[in-house]
Amino acid sequence: MKFKLSAATVLAGLCAIAMARAAVFNVPGGDLEAALNAFTAQSSIQLVVSSDAIKGVKTHGTKGNLSPDTALVRILAGTGFTSMRDPNGAITIVRREERSDVSPAVNIAAAPAPTVSNSGLETVTVTSSKIGGDVQNIPISITALSQEQLTATQTTGGPDLIKQVPNMTFTKTNFSGYSIQLRGIGTQAISVTTDPAVAVAFNDMPFIRNHFFEQEFYDVSQVEVLRGPQGTLYGRNATAGVVNLVSAKPSDQFEALASVDIGNYQNRRLEGMLNIPLVDDRVDVRIAGEWTKRQGYSFNETDGQRIDGRDLWSGRVTIGAKPVDHLQMYLVWEHFSEDDNRLRSAKQLCETDYGPGEVDGVPKPIGAGYSVAGDYFSQGCKPTSLYAPTAFEAPLGYSLPYILGIQDIGHANSIDPYASETQSHNLRVIESGINPIYSAKNDVVELNADYTLTPALTFTSQTGFGHDFLYSAEDYNRFGAAPGLFLNTDAQEGITNGVFCDPQLGLSWRISRRNMRGS
């Protein structure tokens, strides 16, 4: 990213006036490029500097009521760099041993002064390449979104990234797993025990067990999506790419943030952050959290209850420590919890499939029991138009093995429990014997340490621990079912007066398909 300077005489005069005027500076120690950006923002003075030259260089920063000249000298102290003016009056940051007539052909990146329109390009530093640097200079196909961009585009969670990231698709089906695909490559198996093709990482550390689907973004530095194989840096589960969530780090300045979102369906979302410097620039603490609750978008016609609501929260504590000058450590603990009636799958449309009736002139009737040949030629439902009235029918009960099975062994009456059933034409209304249950908890602990041996060489250590719990239950029978399938009395099989008693799921007087998943 380059910025050209013009109007040399005016610029020289403005720089001279600005550099002589005292101001209150608060430039934190750490990365030199970030410190120079902070200096520019606080002084409104432009600097010309090669971002490649200062990459990885650290500074002690500066604080106090100082002239810009003094502040800049203190920022550059001990870094091996100094400031100089070129004939046009621009202030250039160069190495001490370099000549004063720096060639203008050098690929430079300037830290622009803030403007009223805020139209300057933002420098995004990525960490997922393990070497850091400007996103425009990293030789990886990558999309990086800052917290400001996520908020502005209402990208609240992982599935919303498909609106911002090219070549990315997200799939969530009946089960508790999910699938991310980049450039059409991904793992179609969605079991929780299946290794994904797209790795999900938190602060550059991959976590196979995560809640990327459920958890919402809050207080992140940025979200990075890398396309293409990343196995060298992230292991075998990164065949198609990586989604890297980078949490915001503590700083040596007191900061606080709070936001409240209110919407329809009684939607409430609270988000907050508190950053507290404890020991100068040695120990800092950052606490952040988010809570979301709303009513369900769907409606269960059986009991009149709303379903598919949300009640979840997340909290994070980050401690930044700098025990010695060249060592920076971060201890991160994050907790996620959800306890609501989230649906894993909603309404299922169906046109009843009565089978072909005959095959090559041979009749294939339908009916109860495995011996009726026509049942094997029906899939229960057949394809139809989303807008056709027939899309709101129910499956053919005789084609479903679990119904044929209990009929064939004599524990159920020879009827089709769906014969008289139709569905509501409202896509948000289902008819379910039970309401869904969704409970999840996750804890992540990370210890990351960076020791700067030289400006060009840093030793990095990453240690992580994750503990995950998930329980989910829902009824796949979304069509309702007529009573009378179960025999009036069959105590041996748990059936009394046409009511089936299951030790886990309770009593039911009609057929239901309940799926329970836990891990």
Characteristic terms for this protein:
34 strands; 4 domains; Ferric Hydroxamate Uptake Protein, Chain A, domain 1; 38% strand; 8-stranded antiparallel sheet; 5-stranded mixed sheet; 519 residues; Phage tail protein beta-alpha-beta fold; 10% helix
Which stretches are poorly predicted, pLDDT < 50 over at least 5 residues? 1-20, 99-121
How does the overall form come out from the CA principal axes?
elongated
**Terminus-to-terminus distance:** 48 Å
Largest sheet composition: 8 strands, antiparallel
Percent of residues in helices: 10-25%
Give me the count of strands: 34
Radius of gyration: 31 Å
- What is the spatial order of strands in the main beta sheet? 16-17-18-21-22-28-29-34
Count of helical regions? 6
Q: What is the average per-residue confidence, as pLDDT, rounded to a whole number?
A: 82
Structural class, by secondary structure, is mainly beta
How would you describe what is shown here?
The protein has helices at residues 8-20, 32-43, 68-76, 147-152, 231-234, 401-408, and strands at residues 23-27, 30-31, 47-49, 58-59, 62-66, 81-85, 91-95, 109-111, 142-146, 168-172, 178-182, 198-202, 205-206, 220-227, 241-247, 255-263, 267-279, 283-294, 298-300, 305-307, 310-321, 327-340, 351-352, 358-359, 362-363, 381-382, 429-430, 437-454, 457-475, 489-490, 495-496, 499-502, 506-508, 514-518. It is mainly beta and 519 residues long. The strands form ten sheets. An eight-stranded antiparallel β-sheet has the order 16-17-18-21-22-28-29-34, with no helix packed on it. A hairpin with a 3-residue loop joins β32 and β33. α2 runs antiparallel to α3.
